[in-house]
Structures are given as C-alpha cells and as structure tokens.
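User:
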Amino acid sequence: MKTLKKHILDIDHLDRDYIYEILEKAKNLKNNKNSEGNFSNKHICTLFYEDSTRTRLSFEKAAINLEVKFHNIELSKSSINKGESFYNTLKTIDSIGMDMIIIRHPSSGAANFAAKHTKASIVNAGDGSHAHPTQTLSDLFTIYERNIDFSSLEISIVGDFLFSRVARSTIIGFAMMGSKVNIIGPSELISNEIIRAYENLPLIKNGQITVYDEIEKPLMKSDIVMPLRIQKERFTSSFNLDFESYKKFWKIDEKLINNSNKNILIMHPGPVNEEIEISHKLVHSDKSLINLQVENGVFIRETIMRELLS
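Assistant: Predicted structure:
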C-alpha cells in the first residue's frame, strides 16, 4: 500500500520504506521514467527567512519542471518588514490559498509550527539548528544511485554538530538506513546531550553511532567523509572557536585523505568554506560528490513535490 504523507518536516518522521520509495522515484525521474502528472493547477510558495542558494534554486527549478504556479515571497518586500509575525504571515498565505509552503527559518521547530497552523503541505527547507530533511534525502540519493548498500557503509561526519541542522538530519538519515556513522570534531562543537538523543532513537542500533576526538583512525575505515560547514552565523557572543586550530586539526586535505581509505568519497552539504573545512583541491577532485549532491537536490525535491501534491 502506498505510504501517504502531507508534510516533510524531519527525517525521523519518515520510515525506511518511505525513504526507499522516494529514492527509487527520484532515480526514475532522473532517468526520465517518471514524468507523469499534471500539476499546473497547483500553487507553491517559498518563505525563506534565511539566505539560500542551492536549496531555494533547486526547489524553484523543481517547481518549474512540474509546471506548477510558483510564488517566491521576498521578505525584503513583504509585510514582515512592517512587523507582521510569523503566525500572521502563515495565516495570510493560508487565506490566499497555497497547496504547499516551503519554509526556511532561523528558529528550530518553525516548520512543525507551520504544519499545525496552515492547510497547505509544509516542506522544511531548514529550521534553525534542528533539521534539513530534503538535504539528507539528496545525500542519500547520491549514494543510492551508485548502488551502494547502506548497511555496509561507514560515513565519517566532521565538524559542527552543535549548530548544524544538516548534521542532525544526516546522522539520523544514514543511521536509519543501516549505515555506521562516525561523529568527529572538537569538543566545543559536539554536545553530549545531542549524542544521547541520537542513540535513543528507536531505529538506531547500539554502536551504530561512534564519537571520535581524533580524525585519522575513523577515516582509515570510512567509505565517505563529509565535512560540515562551520555555522558562524549561529555563534553567540560568548562562543569562541579558534579557526586556525580547527583548520590544523580538523580540515580535510589531501595528506589526510591519502593516508586513509584510498577509495573514500567526499561529500559536503554546502555551502563550502574552502580551506577551513576542506581543501580547494579535494572539493574539485574526482573523489568529490559535492556537485552531484547539488544536482540531485533538484530530483529529490521534485519527487517530494510530486508525492505531496498528488
């Protein structure tokens, strides 16, 4: 029986079968095998309270592919600048009538809030330090289309686990699919409370997630390494991180990769801060899947739109 969803709010709101269903449909879409459906009478709007290039543009490209009526709310020209609250903005959009609202917001839980107060389908395009489910689905698809068995996969994620919404969704997503996940980074950017929350999720087995305070050992056995962007815009005035020290001990560079698994693949959710999280040379090397992740974001987001609008 087909699994029905109204919203995409978080990766752990989805089950493994539904994720596989999305990945297979995205694969068919990419291979021009899944283009049926008339969505020309559907209305979608984006409501982005934070900057975005990849996510916003890929949603827009996906919407154009579906021939839906696409509305991009420019916050700089909206009533938000007149003091309108998030709640009242949602009610205004709801009253005008949208089939789907794609939301990016600096507050964790904003997408869940929107789902409770609108009739439209809500897609979470990133909320605070909480979740970014469509990015994780794009990353999973990038592995899935290479016919790699998730249950035999080990991925090392490096960097900012305290502020990154991508980190949380990616850890949960890969672990749900059966992969082993290594969490690597300085103590300033790894919270024990966050780690315990991952380990308590029902679909994650004991020992699937391992925390390391050094980088070379886990990379020796990893199939994928994914550095995370340092979320400087979320740092408080009291939070200090020595960037020179970070680059010295945690940056992914050629020497580190050459001493690790020679077949290791490199991913990054973007945007990339070259020479802080990862070297320029590796970003553009034949080991890098970074541009493919961006390309696949369009197919995943179009697939999600098809599912929720059908």
